[in-house]
Amino acid sequence: MSLSISTVPAGDGTATVVVDGEVDLATVGQLRAALGSAARTASGTVLDLTAASYFDSAAVKAVFEHADVLREIVVPAGGIVARVLAISGLDKHVAVRQTDG
């Protein structure tokens, strides 16, 4: 399993946490750490999951834990991650934007 997470600061004080790869029980600690760090240093956080290839219940739980600081979650339109967020109800707590690319 491979996971890469980077945080990109924006000029307005927000940060985008970019996830590339699989987020599961074995790798969710990296996501938690990145979201926690962004929450401490940025005025708001965007979670970019457009390159996430797998997103399990541990990942959903980590995002729920940081929902109060997330401005939006970006996902591929009609993809598995968008379905997971909808089924979990996370899309009722954080704005989810589906993209075509």
Automatic annotation (TrEMBL):
Signal peptide: none
Matches recorded under Gene3D superfamilies: STAS domain
Pfam families registered for this protein in UniProt: STAS
Domain STAS: 4-101
Listed InterPro entries: STAS_dom, STAS_dom_sf
UniProt protein name: Anti-anti-sigma factor
Organism: Pseudonocardia thermophila
